[in-house]
Design goal:
Strand content: under 5%
Radius of gyration: 18 Å
Distance between the termini: 11 Å
Low-confidence stretches: none
Number of strands: 2
Number of helices: 7
Mean pLDDT: 83
Largest sheet: 2 strands, antiparallel
Shape: flat
Order of helices and strands: HHHHHEEHH
């Protein structure tokens, strides 16, 4: 197990495709934060019952930092989770292309496979707009990324 982890951590192939084994996930969850654990449970294990707990933890952090109302902070946290959990283009499903009479790049995402959330779309879903909401969403997205990515780092440190 240590050899596999060492190989993965010291690999020169740091491409965007990430593969997680059962051992990696269990070790990461035991070494990480509550938020990181909830995020992995929702995304990787399909345990959606943890999404509400993750949203509440995020909302609490947003309230402390930006002093938004609880309702708005929860909506911001929920939007950040939606964007993290469902990043794929709604038109092509993340395949980057569509089939009309032939295969062409997706017109909705421009061939990136990623859905671009507009400010208007976010404002409608959150129920508010403005600088604090935008900053809160950026902050929540950073917290999610740090918590999810930090799980592997913590697991590595714990495994030695």
């Amino acid at each position: 197990m240590r050899e596999s982890l060492a190989r993965a951590v010291n690999s020169s192939d740091m491409g965007m495709e990430i593969y997680t084994t059962d051992v990696d996930l269990v070790a990461a969850m035991s070494a990480g934060t509550h938020l990181g654990s909830y995020l992995l449970r929702v995304r990787d294990a399909g345990q959606t019952e943890f999404s509400h707990k993750a949203m509440l933890l995020l909302a609490h952090k947003i309230i402390k930092r930006f002093r938004l109302s609880r309702k708005i902070a929860e909506n911001v946290a929920a939007q950040a989770l939606i964007e993290w959990l469902r990043p794929h283009c709604r038109c092509c499903g993340g395949t980057k292309q569509i089939i009309v009479d032939k295969i062409i790049p997706c017109h909705q995402c421009g061939g990136s496979g990623v859905h671009r959330f507009t400010d208007t779309e976010r404002r409608v879903k959150i129920g508010a707009g403005g600088r604090s909401v935008s900053d809160g969403l950026d902050y929540a997205q950073r917290i999610i990324t740090q918590a999810a990515c930090g799980m592997a780092v913590r697991a590595r440190a714990r495994l030695g």
